[in-house]
């Protein structure tokens, strides 16, 4: 409460100071300019001169000043002021000139009236004006589409505003089921009350970026038919200490008033980070978190306020936040599987025009590991491509090409690559493809291309599994490493040298081999020992070694051995098939892009194809 009062006091003070400054400026500069604009100061002799000449029409006398008006030849009036003199004749002099209207002891203005006009009126004016301005600013900060309630930026979404329902979320069936239960509770709480079940207070959506966490929350809002408050974690963290906590308080106050309702806090990790004693901990954030914890304990679970939150860094959240009674339910929103990907593609394809013969399953198979956001992007890219090609609807080829755009970037059509480099790239890619094709545990080759991409890839070989794979056997892992070394092996075999082009292959091979040793227990040197732990699993995963330095060097040896054996095997495979290597590489050089079928056709044909 103290924070609130302090803030209000501060605001009022700032307000008063600004008003006072404005007022001073007004009185010192503007008022004289307005009121004295046409009055010229002059000397007494000029006044007498004009009286004698009969030009003066009006005179006002007071103790210190003489105000008078003069009509010139053209009939225009001018106002003058001059100091009053001790001139006893003046009155009779003016009297002689019957034309002059004059007032003696004229009081300049009523003192009260002057005070009102120059101090009170502007003050009222400034207050009214600034009130209007302030209101304008705050309502603009609060967002335009949603209603704003008081200080907090939390917005109430009602059905029509998010326009999303569970139908817009494809895949994610488990997450939907869990959320549907919450929606159902809000619709008929008595059904649950009869049994004595109480509603979970909070549910935490966790998963990698782009899997549809925000979308799910919006769908809940669309389905719920109850008020839906949505706020992003970052909105709590403000410049002024105490503002975040005030906002949390405010949010929950509103939520309590509007119960039953749903409160959604997106990216909760911005405020929910573990509180640790480190020096650079953020006071504001900790205050906000403490307030959140207090509020979550404070409200009555039966009242029907449900808190949803989303994060992709669950391990960084404060344990206090995760304990039962707060976010006691954790809803994983994982990367979509094959069926999920196909469903997501279809949901988004419904918004575009496409040919009837499109095979979404093939696209889903080619996009293992892609998130919902990436799939939505692929659909949009394909539509853009169709427009660029002057077509009225999207075809299969547009989709396949946009998969590659999203994975590897756009084609760099005008990149100039010398013939010799092209040849190296062609052999490199065919090296990968051949090694892949000649091994049992390897996914079939889908496409090979040597058209450079904006991501920096000079060419690549796409392998697409027949179905969805959830496990990887040791044999498959080794086959994968062997395939990755195939490119470099071809360069060595044919050109007897190596290039920097294999750097990405090397990186991937090392990563996989390392994981085999440290995490999958697939090496001969170590038993089932976790030598590495992975943190941040939803954001790429940063492995941390959990072993002694001696063991670490043994791991390096082991990794090196795995890659080395695979490399040797790849060279052996290529050596056995060197004619096919030449033949395929030349074919690829000619065509630049070949499909998996063309590749297999040549590989399996008895007589060499001439190009
Ligand atoms: P995040 O998990 O990072 O909050 P979003 O919910 O913001 O991800 O998803 C971004 C976009 O990706 C959505 O607007 C939607 O177009 C698309 N998307 C993600 N997942 C799905 C899904 N399961 N079904 C349909 N579209 C999805
Ligand atoms: Mg999000
Ligand atoms: Zn390569």
Question: Would you give an account of this structure?
Answer:
The chain is an alpha/beta fold. The protein folds into four domains: 2-111, Signal recognition particle alu RNA binding heterodimer, srp9/1, CATH 3.30.720; 155-332, 3-Layer(aba) Sandwich (Rossmann fold), CATH 3.40.50.300; 338-408, Helicase, Ruva Protein, domain 3 (Orthogonal Bundle); 419-604, Methane Monooxygenase Hydroxylase, Chain G, domain 1 (Up-down Bundle), CATH 1.20.58.760. Helices cover 52% and strands 13% of the residues. The protein contains 22 helices and 17 strands. The chain has helices spanning 2-35, 44-53, 90-96, 111-141, 159-162, 173-187, 189-195, 213-224, 243-258, 269-272, 283-298, 319-322, 338-349, 360-366, 372-388, 396-408, 419-437, 474-495, 503-518, 549-576, 578-591, 596-604, and strands at 39-41, 56-61, 65-71, 77-83, 101-103, 147-149, 152-157, 202-206, 228-232, 261-266, 305-311, 329-332, 445-449, 460-463, 532-535, 542-545, 593-595. The strands form four sheets. The protein has a seven-stranded mixed beta sheet with strand order 6-7-9-10-11-8-12, with helices on both faces. A hairpin with a 5-residue loop joins β3 (65-71) and β4 (77-83). α1 packs across α4 (111-141) and α19 (503-518) packs across α20. The chain starts with a helix and ends in a 7-residue tail after the last helix. Adenosine-5'-diphosphate binds at residues 169-172, 209-215, 310, 344, 347, 372-373, 376.
């Amino acid at each position: 409460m103290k924070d609130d009062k302090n803030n209000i006091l501060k605001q009022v003070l700032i307000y008063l100071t600004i008003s006072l400054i404005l007022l001073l400026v007004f009185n010192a500069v503007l008022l004289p300019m307005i009121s004295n604009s046409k009055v010229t100061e002059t000397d007494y002799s000029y006044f007498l001169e004009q009286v004698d000449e009969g030009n003066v029409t009006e005179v006002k006398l007071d103790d210190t000043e003489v105000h008078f008006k003069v009509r010139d030849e053209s009939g225009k009036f001018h106002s003058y002021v001059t100091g009053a003199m001790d001139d006893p004749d003046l009155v009779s002099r003016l009297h002689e000139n019957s034309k002059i209207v004059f007032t003696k002891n004229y009081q300049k203005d009523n003192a009260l009236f002057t005070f009102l006009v120059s101090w009170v009126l502007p003050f009222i004016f400034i207050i009214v004006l600034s009130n209007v301005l302030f209101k304008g600013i705050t309502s603009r900060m609060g967002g335009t589409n949603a209603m704003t309630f008081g200080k907090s930026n939390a917005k109430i979404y009602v059905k029509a505003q998010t326009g999303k329902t569970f139908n817009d979320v494809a895949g994610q069936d488990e997450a939907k089921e869990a959320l549907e239960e919450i929606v159902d509770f809000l619709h008929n709480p008595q059904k649950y009350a009869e049994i004595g079940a109480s509603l979970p207070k909070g549910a935490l959506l966790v998963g990698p970026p782009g899997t549809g966490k925000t979308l799910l929350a919006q769908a809940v809002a669309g389905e719920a038919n109850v008020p839906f408050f949505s706020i992003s974690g970052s909105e709590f963290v403000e410049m002024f200490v105490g503002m975040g906590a005030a906002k949390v308080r405010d949010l929950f106050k509103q939520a309590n008033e509007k119960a039953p309702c749903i409160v959604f806090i997106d990216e909760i990790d911005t405020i929910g980070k573990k509180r640790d004693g480190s020096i650079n901990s953020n006071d504001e954030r900790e205050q906000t978190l403490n307030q959140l914890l207090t509020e979550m304990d404070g409200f009555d679970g039966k009242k029907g306020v449900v808190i949803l939150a989303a994060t992709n860094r669950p391990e960084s959240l404060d344990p206090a936040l995760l304990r039962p009674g707060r976010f006691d339910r954790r809803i994983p929103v994982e990367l979509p599987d094959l069926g999920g990907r196909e469903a997501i593609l279809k949901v988004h394809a419904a918004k575009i025009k496409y040919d009837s013969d499109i095979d979404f399953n093939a696209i889903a198979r080619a996009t293992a590991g892609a998130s919902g956001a990436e799939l939505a992007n692929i659909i949009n890219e394909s539509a853009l491509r169709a427009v660029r090609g002057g077509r009225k609807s999207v075809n299969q080829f547009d989709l396949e090409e946009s998969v590659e755009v999203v994975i590897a970037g756009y084609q760099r059509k005008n990149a100039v690559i010398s013939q010799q480099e092209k040849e190296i790239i062609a052999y490199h890619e065919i090296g990968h493809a051949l090694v892949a094709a000649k091994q049992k545990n390897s996914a079939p080759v889908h496409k090979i291309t040597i058209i450079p991409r904006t991501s920096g890839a000079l060419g690549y070989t796409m392998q697409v599994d027949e179905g969805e794979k959830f496990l990887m056997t040791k044999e498959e892992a080794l086959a994968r490493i062997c395939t990755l070394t195939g490119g470099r092996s071809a360069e060595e075999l044919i050109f007897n040298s190596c290039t920097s082009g294999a750097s990405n292959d090397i990186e991937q091979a090392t990563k996989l081999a390392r994981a085999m040793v440290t995490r999958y227990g697939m090496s001969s040197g170590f038993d089932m020992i976790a030598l590495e732990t992975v943190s941040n699993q939803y954001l790429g995963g940063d492995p941390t070694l959990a072993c002694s330095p001696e063991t670490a060097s043994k791991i390096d040896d082991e990794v090196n051995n795995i890659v080395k054996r695979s490399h040797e095997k790849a060279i052996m495979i290529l050596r056995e098939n060197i004619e096919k290597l030449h033949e395929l590489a030349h074919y690829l050089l000619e065509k630049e892009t070949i499909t998996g079928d063309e590749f297999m056709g040549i590989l399996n044909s008895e007589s060499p194809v001439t190009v």
